[in-house]
Amino acid sequence: MQTILFQDMGRVAYDAAWDYQESLLQANLQIKAEWYNIPETSRPANTSTVNHLLFCEHPHVYTIGKSGHMENLLVNDARLKELDVSFFKTNRGGDITYHGPGQVVGYPILDLEHFVTDLGKYMRNLEEAIIRTLSRYGIEGGRLQGATGVWLDADVKGKARKICAMGVRCSRWVTMHGFALNVNTDLRYFDYIVPCGITDKSVTSIEKELGYKVDEQEVKDILKHEFGMVFNAEIVNEKASVTA
């Protein structure tokens, strides 16, 4: 069983969280580089990399991945300023998405060589943690063929809607970026983009599906537990190192 250090960073600017993730990833890459430099005959069985799981909430921000298309941002810079929304081009996979208040954003920095060296399986595991969390609220989440993230009524024509977006980066099997689960999210902000570049599907939230706001701390507690179960890991609380 692996150990994952957990931090709930609260509300934090997107770029600050990105820089922090990058620092944790680079620290693990340095550990791995040093491990590979040890002669094989005296090399320890495993690297001493450190696994992390970060939860946070961002101020209003649109982010676009490496394969994203700028035409999926439907407003200009002036309108972004009016809406008080930031915009970042990122080094994750995927297209454009929104982060904001009422959303639980999770950033796992994991050395997959200690879990499973299969990026597709890793993504399915992230989805599974979300699906299990939603089930605790009586919401049946699922997967949409050919797409990432967690969906509701994925196989029902005209009803498929995304409740959790995902996009990751992986370098030498160390991950960063992750998922964004809509809890009590103001879904109007998705009207200014083509979410994930998908034109014929909608977005939703736990609040919208249930008809009332839910306790975001409760959602995070459940999600943290389910994440540990899916990844067969002990999740240990660590004091947050980044603030807004």
How would you explain this protein's 3D organization?
The protein is of the alpha/beta class. It has one domain: BirA Bifunctional Protein, domain 2. The chain has 5 helices and 12 strands. The strands form 2 sheets. Strands 1, 2, 6, 7, 8, 9, 10, 11 and 12 form a 9-stranded mixed sheet that branches. It has a 3-stranded mixed sheet with strand order 4-3-5, with no helix packed on it. α3 packs across α5. It is globular and about 60 Å long. It starts with a strand and ends in a 7-residue tail after the last strand. The mean pLDDT is 91.
Q: Which key terms come to mind for this protein?
A:
single chain; 244 residues; alpha/beta; 5 helices
Q: Proportion of β residues?
A: 25-35%
Please identify which CATH superfamily we are dealing with.
Bira Bifunctional Protein, Domain 2
Unreliable parts: none
Main sheet specs: 9 strands, mixed
Question: How many H/I helices?
Answer: 5
The CATH architecture designation is: 2-Layer Sandwich
Write the H/E string, N to C: EHEEHEEEHEEEEEHHE
Count of domain modules: 1
Helix content: 25-40%
Distance between the termini: 33 Å
CATH fold field value: BirA Bifunctional Protein, domain 2
Number of strands: 12
Look at the structure and give the mean pLDDT: 91
Shape verdict: globular
- Look at the structure and give the CATH class: Alpha Beta
Q: Please tell me how large the radius of gyration is.
A: 18 Å
- Structural class computed from helices and strand pairing: alpha/beta
